[in-house]
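#lab-general

N.A. 3:47 PM
ok so I finally got the sequence cleaned up, no stray characters, all 257 residues accounted for. can someone with queue access submit it? mine expired

B.Y. 3:52 PM
send it over

N.A. 3:53 PM
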Amino acid sequence: MLGIAQRWLNESLTSLGEMALLAWETLTSLVKRGAEMKELVYQVYFIGVKSQSVVLITGAFTGMVLCAQTYYQFHKVKMDSATLAVVSVSMLSELGPVLTALMVAGRVGASMAAELGTMRVTEQIDALRTLATHPVDYLVVPRVFATIIAMPLLTIESITVGIISAYLVGVHLLNIDATYAVYNMVKYSDPPELWMGIIKATVFGVIIAVISSYKGLNCPQGAEGVGRATTEAVVAASISILISNFFLTLTLTRLLY
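B.Y. 4:20 PM
back already:
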């Protein structure tokens, strides 16, 4: 049992170190060479535009559920007009970026890992090296850069739709006074909370792209290896998002407030 635990720890630390090296190599290449525009535009379209439906649905129903649950508790102490303020603060700093990142990790992360894993299994990555093309420059950099661009935009979209949905539910379904609800929402929603959400979304985008690319580039041979790499990419990205969210919250709260 001790040997298994030690082997698992060694493999985890090795993978973490290799991912850190991949992230550093990607950042260096991005700064020195940039990304190929055609591939970058396609990745922004694939990651950003084609993820809108799942992000909008997630944001809308999260805002509505949060509004309803908050209202039922606040109504007991006659604080109905503070409902939208709670929804706004929660969506801006926590639920907006985290849920958007989890949805994108499930959709985009799996696709990245599967695509790069298939390229590795079919030896297309080896062919790129034969043509003197660095796989990180050609494959990883556009995906990471596109995710950094798309994630904050998707998060802002999710936050906006969530707050609007909460307003419609609160005012038209739960009969909250619209004037006081909007006043309290604006009063207690500070700019640092929006910045916190945008910074978190950017970091989450890097996490998703780097982990998914790493799992795809190091995919075991065979169809089973591609499936395993895809699953590991989604699980590892989701867990990393939740863990990093805690530390980002502590750090950004001290820096922005």
